[in-house]
What does this fold into?
Amino acid sequence: MNIYLVRHGETEENKNRYYYGSLDVSLNENGITQAKKAGKALKHIIFDKLYVSERIRTKETAELALGNDIAAVKDSRINEMSFGVFEGKTYEEIKKLYPKDYKCWEEDWMDFAPNGGESYRDFYNRVESFMDELIKNPCENVLVVTHGGVIRSIYCYVLNGKLDLYWKFSSKNGDISLIKYEYGNIFIDSITHI
It folds into this structure.
């Protein structure tokens, strides 16, 4: 089984370095270009299934990359992490507006949840649920268009749920990763920067 992961194209919020997991925003011009480039890189593959998050930026990326050749299945488990009151703010703004919460987040990034948001551990658990289900229903080629945090969490999943490895990976807008599941083994085959 080949699981292709594509991070959605760039948005203005990415460009301005906002935390915005739950905000529903569209791609910017650069993001549109990235999505089209990802499509060119994937054009030779026939996908059996396509999954997108509930956010418009993943749907736009999938449509620009593949056209409307395959119906997308929306799955909330591959939504980006919800940052609650931190949404729409930069790292510096969070530090200034919520100094106590910021300190707690810095000291316990896995288990701290901003007001109205979720902890990384809870976020990982829903991504894990998605992956567990995905590999139980194998097909030849699956495309998952999602978010940087989800992709990093999938890398942790591949590495036996080692959550502390989350910060050891990058996932840039438009990147394509190939995860293979063969003979009961799951592994990262490649990561391509677009």
